[in-house]
Write a structure and sequence with these properties.
The chain is mainly α. The protein is built from eight helices and no strands. The chain has helices spanning 3-16, 23-32, 45-48, 52-67, 73-76, 79-99, 102-128, 134-157. The longest helix has 27 residues, at 102-128. It is globular. It starts with a helix and ends with a helix.
C-alpha cells in the first residue's frame, strides 16, 4: 500500500470519527464539551521502536473499539465482543511472535493470520447484522489488507 492509500485510510478514519486534523482544535473542543473526543494517535515507529505491523494492528483494534461502541445492545455480547476480542488477540499473537524464534515464531504468526481472517469474518457478519456500517466495514477491510501484506512480508523475511 503506497503513501497515498495510507493517507486516504487515515483521512477516512478521521471523517468516520468526525475529528478535525489539527490536534489543537481537538483539545479546544474537549474543553468545551463534557466528554473528551476519542483521538486515534498515530504511533511513531521510530519512537516506539515497533514494526509497522504492530502499529497497524493497534490502529485497527482502536478503530474497531470506537466503531462498535454504539452498536445495538442485542449484538454487543455476541458478534461485537468476538470482533473486539479477535482484534486484541491479533496484537497478542504479534507480540508473542516477536518474542520467539524459529518454529514458535512461525506458529504465532500463523495464529495472527487466523485472527486476521476471523476479524474479516466478524466484521462482515457485524455489517450484515447492522452493528457497523458498510463504510466502516470497508475501512476495516483496507486495514486488514495492509496488515496481511506486512505480516506475510515478515513471515517471508525469516527464510
Amino acid at each position: 500500500m503506497d503513501k497515498t492509500d495510507k493517507d486516504f485510510i487515515d483521512e477516512e478514519i478521521r471523517q468516520e470519527l468526525n475529528q478535525p486534523d489539527d490536534s489543537e482544535q481537538i483539545y479546544a473542543m474537549a474543553n468545551k464539551v463534557a466528554r473528551k473526543p476519542f483521538v486515534i494517535h498515530d504511533f511513531d515507529p521510530m519512537r516506539d521502536r515497533e514494526m509497522a505491523v504492530f502499529t497497524a494492528a493497534k490502529k485497527l483494534a482502536e478503530y474497531i473499539f470506537v466503531v462498535t461502541e454504539k452498536s445495538p445492545k442485542k449484538l454487543r455480547w455476541s458478534i461485537v465482543t468476538r470482533l473486539q476480542n479477535s482484534s486484541v488477540e491479533l496484537i497478542e499473537y504479534l507480540y508473542r511472535a516477536n518474542a520467539e524464534q524459529g518454529e514458535k515464531r512461525a506458529d504465532f504468526q500463523k495464529q495472527a493470520q487466523t485472527a486476521l481472517s476471523l476479524i474479516d469474518f466478524y466484521s462482515e457478519t457485524a455489517r450484515c447484522m447492522q452493528a457497523i456500517t458498510i463504510r466502516q466495514t470497508g475501512i476495516i477491510a483496507r486495514q486488514l489488507y495492509e496488515i496481511k501484506k506486512m505480516l506475510n512480508g515478515w513471515m517471508r523475511s525469516k527464510k
